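Key idea: predict the complex, not the pieces.
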Amino acid sequence: MGTLTGKIALVTGSSRGIGQATAELFGREGATVVVHYRKSEAAAADVVARIRDAGGQSFALGADLEDPEAIDALFTTIEDRLGSLDILMANAASTAFKPILDLKPHHITRTFDVVFGSLVHMVQRAVPLMARDGRGLGRIITVSGHGTPFTLPAYATIGAAKGAVETLTRYLAYELGSRQITCNAIAPGVIATDSARYYMGERYDAFDREVTAQTPLGRIGSPDDIARVALFLASPLSDFVTGQVIRVDGGLTLASGPFENMKHIE
Ligand SMILES: NC(=O)c1ccc[n+]([C@@H]2O[C@H](COP(=O)([O-])OP(=O)(O)OC[C@H]3O[C@@H](n4cnc5c(N)ncnc54)[C@H](OP(=O)(O)O)[C@@H]3O)[C@@H](O)[C@H]2O)c1
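Result:
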């Protein structure tokens, strides 16, 4: 018996990175996992195959989360094939990395649609499928980011959108608590994924060394680091936790700028 045996989970953006690691861990822990992707159909199929090879149940569904009709189709298929849903992890995100003065209206609209608007829409479709037939607690897990409490270059739009996600997480916890549905956010630090490599470009290796040096736990994060916290939030271990933002960064955010150069005093 795994921690999530008998549960049904949708992990958005699980063709790659954090979503992939979470989908595979949820599958190993006994959940039936809907692997969701936008373009990476072959990668999503590989994730499904690994879950099945490990003895789990899984299938993949594609949907562009910028498109409300695609979200409706995604949930209609889940309802038709599985009948209910226990865990929604809203992980997928995309944006254009641009300084504020270079932003065009569509950069803002598209980022907020995929990060914030899709979350509202998915929750509206997921909640009626949760806690059906005495299945127990429903779980919503959102994903924030390092660029919300802190400023990063060219990161304003998605940083602000994730700020809205953190606020919505608290409102969801407040409004859905009476239905025995919890909602919590994970705020990853720097995690070694495609998007981190894309964001840093050719500076990625140097950046990895700098993050490692400034992180008390002495390394950059891995997708598995986030997946394990998602498992905690999806499992009965977190039954009484709701409305929280859990930072998972190895202590990176404890570093205090110029004082890092004074470590010789220790
Ligand atoms: N990596 C980090 O350092 C870091 C730090 C803090 C927070 N985060 C957050 O953690 C989450 C996952 O990040 P990651 O680095 O694992 O991302 P990633 O490797 O770039 O993967 C992004 C996933 O989201 C999907 N996706 C992107 N746009 C989509 C859209 N419009 N509709 C549907 N799916 C879409 C992608 O699908 P396709 O593969 O089909 O394109 C992919 O599965 C994001 O919310 C990110 O903001 C990451």
